[in-house]
Amino acid sequence: MPKFEITVQDGDLVKLITSFAEKAVNTDRLTGQLASRMLDCVKENFEQEGRPPWQGLADATIKARRRKGSYPGKILQDTGTLVGSFYTKNTSSEAVVGTDVPYAAVHQLGSTTKNIPARKFLAFTSEDREEFKRIALDFIVEGL
User: Fold this and answer.
1) CA 41 to CA 95: how far, in whole Å?
2) CA-to-CA distance for 113 and 136, rounded, in angstroms?
3) pLDDT, mean over the chain
């Protein structure tokens, strides 16, 4: 089944996690906390319809939703399949949030051939990234 995942690639954070892993420090709890927080951020993206805001629905989409009785409604949440599909996983050196929904990538990245704008739900704000670093620092302090 197709997967679409995102991993935080913050260089400082990756170096920190890697250095702990090399020193045989069990970082599973840290990466589990990071994956959980990443999932919260993805859910917040859906709740706020993007951070920054996603492009609005096309007129044709609004008409189709009205016919189905699902308008008004949130962007990318017509049936709830996508927003409810996210999972987390972690290893000692990696925190991941992803989805197995086949059409997730086209909505994340957009499609010029299908005239679908990118609506980045697997995205993190600078505040989110600072929170990830705070989680990592808390882990370090607790381990001292």
Assistant:
1) 13
2) 41
3) 88
